[in-house]
Amino acid sequence: MGTIAYEQDLVAWANEQARLLRAGRFDQLDLEHLAEEIEDVGKGEQRELANRMAILLAHLLKWQLQPDRRGSSWTITIRNQRRAIARALEETSSLKGKLADVHWWEAVWGDAVDLAAREAGLSECVETCPWTVDEVMDLDWMP
After folding, report:
1. Residue 84 domain flag
2. Model pLDDT, residue 81
3. Can you tell me the distance from the alpha carbon of 65 to that of 60, in angstroms, rounded to the nearest whole number?
4. Any alpha helices (H) in the chain, and if so which ranges?
5. Would you state the pLDDT for residue 1?
6. Which stretches of the chain score pLDDT less than 70?
7. CATH number at residue 109
8. What DSSP letter does each residue of 65-99 carry, written as one string?
9. Which of 28, 116, 134, 137 could form a disulfide with 58 if both were Cys (CB 3.0 to 4.6 A apart)?
10. Positive or negative: CA dihedral 59, 62, 64, 70
11. Would the CA dihedral through 27, 32, 37, 43 be positive or negative?
12. Which is it for the CA torsion 119, 123, 128, 129, positive or negative?
């Protein structure tokens, strides 16, 4: 194993692990922690997608339920989130499967409803997402 402890200094540990990998010194790698870190990278990408989708859905929900409060900031947020999500899906195609996962949508919709309730005081909310993925991601569509 490496000389720098994972718990001691994560950045120094990561640099050492990269050096060992590049040198082909596989017998000295901290395999358990390397595996955890690699898994965390994937989880981070999934969390980012879920967070962006929740923000997008919350703004679409506010747009639908509060037409008198619509403004350019909501429009900009909706557009920016759609573009960022599309970019993430293009760069990491394995994330596309999340869009077809009913349980993922339920969790993200719950986060979106909570966010809309906190930001806009919405109490009347739809229990499940009323829109299709295609509608949500369509740059020209608004509820």
Report:
1. yes
2. 98
3. 9
4. 10-22, 31-65, 72-91, 102-120, 133-137
5. 46
6. 1-3, 124
7. 1.20.1220
8. H-GGG--HHHHHHHHHHHHHHHHHHHH-GGGGGGG
9. 116
10. negative
11. positive
12. negative
The two three-digit tokens of residue 94, written as one number: 């394995």
Domain that holds residue 26: 10-137
| Phi-psi group of 140: left, alpha or beta (phi > 0 → left; psi -120 to 50 → alpha; rest → beta) | alpha
How confident is the model at residue 46, as a pLDDT? 94
- Separation between Cα atoms, residue 132 and residue 23, nearest integer Å: 49
Q: How many domains does the chain have?
A: 1
Tokens in use for 122? 């919405």
Amino acid making up residue 17: Q
Burial letters for 114-132: b for 16+ Cβ neighbours within 10 Å, e otherwise?
Answer: ebbbeebebeeeeeebebe
